[in-house]
Write a structure and sequence with these properties.
Shape: globular
Number of domains: 1
Distance between the termini: 37 Å
CATH superfamily: Glycerol-3-phosphate (1)-acyltransferase
Largest sheet: 7 strands, mixed
Radius of gyration: 16 Å
Strand order of the largest sheet: 1-7-6-2-5-3-4
Strand content: 15-25%
Length: about 220
């Protein structure tokens, strides 16, 4: 029942305030939607440049996304209530948060889309940085397909200053891929899987955004 209410609130929000913000603040250039599986468990992974990335990706996705978000946001008045109403999963960053891991795996068992930013925080240089191991760990443990996504242009947006600027932003959905289902993954397995996830994201980004993955990427056509 709780998840059903979160789903209703999610779509009501997409159709109202999220759509309004996108209408006035951005001119989205979205490609690759045909790569999104219409149903079944899916882990959406993206680079992260701005606080506007989650609503922009949420607006572009035809499916509900259960985002993982830092615990600090849930501790804020109003914002924390909204995030819980959305059905988002709080996570304590940079530590082993087993509770968040269990909730993420439960969302995937329900056949939902789990949204994650593997870097764990926004990039200050608008380039891919080193990723945290949590995303790869969940992908290995569940065997769920991974959908790589790239977003850029949001690094120039500052709200409320740019609410009517209609900034051009770009979103690219890549082709889903799967990591080997491995519930007993070693540290080396997780490190290799993390690099593979980030390489897939880098493949979708312009060269100047690829950061440390610049020389590993093979540009993908979407």
């Amino acid at each position: 029942m709780k998840d059903r209410l979160a789903t209703i609130f999610y779509w009501l929000s997409i159709r109202t305030w999220v759509s309004l913000v996108m209408l006035f603040a951005a001119r989205p250039d979205v490609k690759g939607r045909q790569n999104i599986p219409p149903h079944g468990p899916l882990i959406l992974v993206s680079n992260h440049l701005n606080n506007g990335d989650p609503p922009a990706l949420t607006h572009a996705m035809p499916r509900r996304v259960v985002w993982m978000a830092k615990q600090e946001l849930f501790d804020m008045p109003v914002v924390g209530w909204l995030f819980r109403a959305f059905g988002l999963i709080p996570v304590r960053r940079f530590e082993a948060d087993l509770g968040a891991l269990r909730k993420a795996q439960a969302a995937l068992r329900r056949g939902q889309v789990l949204g994650m930013f593997p870097e764990g925080t926004r990039s200050q240089q608008a380039q891919l940085g080193e990723a945290e191991p949590g995303t790869a760990l969940i992908a290995l443990r569940t065997g769920a397909p991974v959908l790589p996504v790239a977003i850029w242009g949001t690094e120039h947006v500052k709200l409320p200053r740019d609410i009517f600027a209609r900034t051009r932003l770009h979103i690219r959905f890549g082709r889903p891929f799967q990591l080997p289902h491995n519930k007993r993954a070693t540290k080396d397995d997780i490190a290799a899987a993390t690099d593979e996830i980030m390489r897939h994201i880098a493949d979708l980004l312009p060269e100047s955004y690829r950061g440390r993955y610049q020389h590993q990427s093979q540009p993908e056509t979407v």
